[in-house]
Structures are given as C-alpha cells and as structure tokens.
Amino acid sequence: MYSKLLFARLVAWLLAGPAIAQGAEEHPLLPTWKCTTSGGCVQQNTSIVLDKDSKYATNAAGSRTAADYTAMGVSTSGNALTLAHYVKSGNTLNPASPRVYLLDSDGNYVLMKLLGQELTVDVDYSDVPCGENGAFYLSEMAADGRGNASAGTGYCDAQCQGYCCNEMDVLEANSKATAMTGHPCNGNTCDKNGCAFNPYQSGQHNFWGQTVDTSKPFTVVTQFPANGGKLSSITRKYIQNGRQINSGSVSSCGSEGSTGGLTGMGAALGRGMVLAISIWNDATQQMAWLDSGVNGPCRSGEGTPANIQAQHPGTHVVYSNIKWGDIGSTTKS
Ligand SMILES: *[C@@H]1O[C@H](CO)[C@@H](O)[C@H](O)[C@H]1NC(C)=O
Ligand SMILES: *[C@@H]1O[C@H](CO)[C@@H](O)[C@H](O)[C@H]1NC(C)=O
Prior knowledge:
- There is one protein chain.
- The chain has a single domain (4-14, 27-54, 65-142, 155-326), classed as Glycoside hydrolase, family 7, domain (1,4-Beta-D-Glucan Cellobiohydrolase I, Chain A).
- The protein contains five helices and 22 strands.
- The protein has helices at 2-22, 256-259, 261-271, 288-291, 305-311, and strands spanning 32-36, 40-44, 47-50, 74-77, 80-84, 86-89, 92-95, 99-103, 117-124, 132-139, 167-173, 178-183, 185-186, 189-190, 195-197, 218-223, 226-227, 230-231, 234-240, 243-250, 274-281, 316-326.
- Strands 1, 2, 4, 5, 9, 16, 19, 20 and 22 form a nine-stranded mixed β-sheet that branches.
- The protein starts with a helix and ends in a 7-residue tail after the last strand.
- The structure holds 2-acetamido-2-deoxy-beta-D-glucopyranose (2 copies).
- Residues 42, 44-45 line the site of one 2-acetamido-2-deoxy-beta-D-glucopyranose (NAG).
C-alpha cells in the first residue's frame, strides 16, 4: 500500500515535472480595482506579464524560460508597479526597457471595456527625463494573446508591431511633457500619427511640470464618454494634493472612413482592450514628437539614449492604484 502510494506520487510528480524543471513563471501580483457607481470598487486578482520577446526571458535555444522580472527592471509592491529603464549588473548598466501587460487570474489578459467608462492611475514621473517615455496605454490584443497570454504573447499596436490593431495611448509622458493619443485602425490601415492632446502644443507651456507638479505623484483620470453608443470625446483631468486640475480633450480623430476615427476608437474600447505599460527611449527620434520643439521644453539632443544612460541611470516610472469603471466611480475615496 505504502509503496504504491509513493509510486503514484512519483508518477504525479513526473507528470508535473517538466513545468517545474523549466521553472513555472511567477507573475508579479498587481491588484487593480473595477468600479461601479452603485457598488463601489472591487479588487481584482490581477498580475503582470512581460512581453514574450523580453530579454532574459528566452534561453539559448530561443525558447522561453521563466522571465526574470528583476533583471528586466520590473517590480511590484502592493498595488504599485515600478519599471526601470536601466538595471545594474555588476559594474555594467543594462538597458532593460520593459513592456508588461495586465493579466487576469484565469491566465488571459484583462479586457478593459472602457466605452462610456473611465480609467484612473496614480503616477510618479519624477525620475523620467527628457527623451524617455513612460507609456500607459491600451492595445486591442486578443484576450488569449493568440496563443498564451500567460507567456506574454500576441502584442499588437497601431504602428503594426506584431500586427496592426487599435491603440489608445492613454498616457505617454516624462517629467517635462505629456500626450494622450488615439490611434484607430480600419483593418490594417492605422492612424499612425494619431489624434493627440498635448498641453504644451496647445500653448500651455507651464502646465506639465508646474500646474501639475511632476516632481511629485498625482492621479490621472481619463474618461471615454459615449453618446448613443459612440465615443464622443477622450478627456483628461488630474488630482494632486486633493485638488482637481482639468485638462484637455480629444473630440475628433482623423477620418472616420479611412482609419475608423473616433467612432472606431470607441468601438475598440467597447470590445475591450489590453493594458500595456512600458518605459522606452529611442535613438532615431529621441522622443522629439513628445517633448521638444513645439511639443515640449526639452532641448534637441538631450534625449539621446546615451545621454539618458549617462545622466539619468536611475530612470524609472511608478504606476499604482489602477482603477476602471463607471465615470465618476474611480475617484471616490
Ligand atoms: C480574488 O481572490 C480572492 C481569494 O482567492 C477571492 O475571494 C476573490 O473573490 C477574488 N476576486 C475576484 C474579483 O475574483
Ligand atoms: C503558457 O505560459 C506559461 C508561462 O510561461 C507556462 O507556464 C504555461 O505552461 C504555458 N501554457 C501553454 C499551454 O503552453
């Protein structure tokens, strides 16, 4: 009897073995909240997963091993997610530039259905310099990642990385500049430039940094009001030190016919989109479309990856307290 039981356990262990041997991936927990006007906010058992192509997450044979979140500059603590651009390893600084997605407890991505709803997040951009982009956005990825969401598969966006899909850049920012941009797609035709609201571009040169003090944390509320089932605008407000600061909105988005426009963006929000969060910089454009010239106060050349790495090795962004649901429901304390 005894040995038979042991044998059964051994068989069970061997059957379960391969997953253990490869080191099943532990997804860092990141609780979020889904809110309704009537029921308040309910905690969701969500976690994050690194994109499948993340460095350190594949072995020499090219197959995925348990992703090393620490080596990729990703950590969570309570409801806060920190993404660091550079990670120290011995005496060298490795560019990690992580991108993660919000995962549900069933192993699929969380599909946020935001038409007529709002999405709120607390942010800390104090250590995000010129040339860097802390991006908190939505892509119309498939819930199952067209494969295995638990392994970070199936990325898509309106620049057609992966494949072409609707993208809503809720918040792209550093400590000096910010933009919120819709990128609707009609099939494989995407509005790659998108329809953006950037306060600096609109002449509010002291808004991002002073009116909203980016050296301290604050709350970002993005609303997607609908009218007759159609997205009517994308609006933004901030809350800092208990004070509400209204900002701008986007009320049209290119041509409805060719790329889907605001209606197309709203339809994607209605079907549900996946929350993607990343920190990145780039040598080619140096984020000038976001933060220099008419777009922001950063000097040309300031935002090169080499400069950022040398001057700001600790570059990181923090997102916490992610809530979504009925308009007005996410900011009630
Ligand atoms: C989260 O997990 C707890 C403990 O397993 C469970 O009681 C709760 O219902 C879960 N919440 C949701 C929204 O699924
Ligand atoms: C999906 O990915 C996870 C994480 O890497 C892994 O543990 C799981 O076995 C994979 N599932 C399938 C069906 O491949």
